[in-house]
Amino acid sequence: MSTPALETRGLHKSFGALTVANAVEFRLERGARHALIGPNGAGKTTFVNLVTGALQPSAGKINLDGADITHLPQAARVKRGLVRTFQISTLFRRLSVLENVTLAVCEREGLGGELLRPAGRHRVVIEEAFALLDRLGLADEALRPVNTLAYGRQRLVEIAIALGLSPKVLLLDEPAAGVPTGESGMIIDVIESLPPDLALLIIEHDMDLVFRLAWQITVLVQGSVLVEGPPEVIAADARVRRVYLGERVRA
Amino acid sequence: MSDRGAVAIFARRHRYHPLEAAPWLISVAAYFAFPSYLPLGAQILATILFALSADLLLGYAGVVTLGQAAFFGAGAYTTGLLAAHGWGEPITGLLAGAAVAALIGLLSGLVILRTTGLTLLMLTLVVASMLYEAVNKASWLTGGDDGLQGMKVWPIFGWFRFDLFGETAYCYCLIVLFLCWLAARRIVHSPFGRSLTGIRENIRRMHAIGAPVDGRLLVVYTISAALAGTSGALIAQTTGFVGLTFLGLDRSGTVLIMLIIGGVGRLYGAFIGVPLYMIAQDRFSTIAPVYWYFWIGLLMVLVVIFARGGILGLFDRFRR
Questions:
Q1: How many folded domains does chain A comprise?
Q2: Quick one: DSSP state of residue A54?
Q3: Residue numbers of the domain that contains B228
Q4: A-chain residues within 8 Å CB-CB of B16?
Q5: What are phi and psi of A161, to 5 degrees?
Q6: Do A116 and B190 touch (CB under 8 A)?
Q7: What is the pLDDT of residues B171-207, one digit of tens each?
Q8: Which of A95, A117, A122 lies nearest to residue B201, judging by beta carbons?
Q9: Contact indicator for B148, B241 with CB cutoff of 8 Å
């Protein structure tokens, strides 16, 4: 098997007596469309926080493209192409949509610390950010403060910021959370149009979205991997149904 | 909006707007119009620089501080001590004041910027209080409670003497303020400055896009300290006096009030809030020497109720 884009080995995290990640073995292949599902409190977002470095694991290893990143700070992981979005929109609220994405492109290019040249002189960066907005259908709103956009549109900006970093591995934390069903279509369209070589992990509650996009699904329950497999296997799995539907299967 | 339009507007934001000339034209006009108020004018100009330093922190990076007087006082005492001990050359004195303030900013920033929110606010206060007490204790050097005695500031370039009417002082403060404003303006429009607004708007996301947030904050904290130190040094040189009030909590608080009245995070709030506050203070204190603070308080209440973004915020609202 080739080196996975992202891999965790025995990843463990506990807060005192509470174990939120329990020996998680996880592989995200290159170009994967992988979903991580599980009931509330299963530890999905904790898993994202561990992988991206917002939290330090108690034990275990994280490899990005074969290299150990377990002890790298958050920013260094981003520089290596590991990028996330947030379940609750985490945007630069009063800044324009274009500025939101430009900030990301600037950081990717290592320009963020530059003091003396006006930001507007980096025309290439701005053009790139705008082209990205255009691709996501946000061009008309480019100059509006992002907090004046409808929530569904803000979810798109959430993804646009991540794409501005040219990720190799993208972790989407509930990309459609809080979006009315009618509007989740545009988010699915955007995810479907992502470059094929990008390794994608979607954390999601919305089963329609998961079964439409994912080739591989991992089910997380109480911090442990319950089962992993292609959608049809997961859909047929009795344990998954029990967890989700509360069915009691008597032996 | 056409495709090109948005990019072009966005890329042009750092260009000068004709209105930006207004504060400078007014300052020059005031020099000729109010010759008997030049000492007050010089104080106002130097204090605008102080408020500008606070705006970089509060308005751009979103760092709330109650310790800005530490840097103001550090700059003032440095320049003052030099002038009292035989080095009254103003330009180098000013630079020395800025450098010492920047150094204190850098060292204290290394420690306190690891925290956020209320803890950070308290720590800025602590740094200022510690410096205040240290200067108070070292009365053999600083004159303690009585203030620093015997400053002798030489003429600028050996030629322009600080006169009684404040003509030199006014021009000196105006030029220094102008140069510092140019620098501050350049900084806020740079990618670094834009990233500060990112930190202000959402620090978590700045981390998540790979920005070295702590380093950026330390840089702006140091720059802000240098500007505050320059301001303190200006006032020390032009009034020929440095005292403990330069380091007091009062001064840290007042500068925030002036900035909030003018408008935070706009680079020009200082140019409106400071003159308004200081002229009002000057007027009220002659009309009602005992309770002029009441009127200042009333002004503040009105701003908070009716003009949340300060006076500049009001303009924005009318433009829409």
A1: 1
A2: S
A3: 18-319
A4: none
A5: -60, -45
A6: yes
A7: 999 999 999 999 999 999 999 999 999 999 999 999 9
A8: A95
A9: yes
